[in-house]
Amino acid sequence: MLPHTTNTYWHEFSEISRATPSLNYFERLWAAWYAFMGNDVLATGIMSFMMHELVYFGRSLPWMIIDQMPAMNKYKIQGQKVPSKKEQWDCAKLVLLSHFTVELPQIWFFHPMAQYFGLTTTVPFPSILTMAYQIAIFFVLEDTWHYWSHRALHWGPLYKNIHKIHHQYSAPFGLAAEYASPIEVMILGLGTVSGPILWCAITKDLHILTMYIWIVLRLFQAIDAHSGYEFPWSLHHFLPFWAGADHHDTHHEKFIGNYSSSFRWWDYVLDTESGAEAQKRRRERKLAKAQKAQ
Ligand SMILES: [Zn+2]
Ligand SMILES: [Zn+2]
């Protein structure tokens, strides 16, 4: 066999399958990719960037189709505001620009940085339970970071110079999740990436697959929160502390309150909830206080 024909992805795959038959199919595909690339940073960089693009646009697409279906309009939170094709195209252009200029380096530097702190890329994979509890921790950390930095971004000068772009759409749609100034993408993206790095530095226990699944779930959360749709089967009906579109859509409509990303607890505890219901509760509280003082 000629030497260059042996250096294929599937050759690596069959070599690994022969040497370690105990690995499952997915683990063998994974190990073959890293062996084939021969450069972990490059292998992770390409895989994670492609995955990010695929999930971002792949998850936004069903929402774009739903927007074209009149029967679904009854589930739209701000029913009268369906995004036009031009709006969606303008949005996609800016999103792509920040993906290539801001997110690409962030994704690229994640691997060497996390590897420095002890990230593993090897097989076998961690157990589902390990991945689940670590991802749950990342969700809580990100939500906290998001609450405080998003709230800060609503402070006058920061709003005017950075965050205003994200608020261009008062009725959001899936694709608009990452429609923002590159500076904002960097600030908020830090919440997604620094939690796992911190975790890795302290515990020395993080597999990059856990990171991938976390990114996918976080993308789903962000895109769905911007979808503009509220269904009787939306997650927050079953998990009352889950934010979802119901929570974030109001933020876009009212411009103040509801600053967190995944959960409702920060806005609840710090009394920054937005919307008519929160307003009513605030009014009632004030009234009760005034009556007590009399
Ligand atoms: Zn905002
Ligand atoms: Zn938003």
Automatic annotation (TrEMBL):
One of its GO terms (biological process) is lipid biosynthetic process. Its EC number is 1.14.18.9. The chain crosses the membrane at residues 31-51, 123-141. It is found in: Membrane. Residues 136-272 form the Fatty acid hydroxylase domain. Signal peptide: none annotated. It comes from the Eukaryota. The keyword Membrane applies. Its main location: membrane. Keywords: Membrane, Oxidoreductase, Transmembrane, Transmembrane helix. GO terms for molecular function: C-4 methylsterol oxidase activity; iron ion binding. GO terms for cellular component: membrane. PANTHER family: STEROL DESATURASE (PTHR11863). This is C-4 sterol methyl oxidase. It comes from Recurvomyces mirabilis. The gene is ERG25.
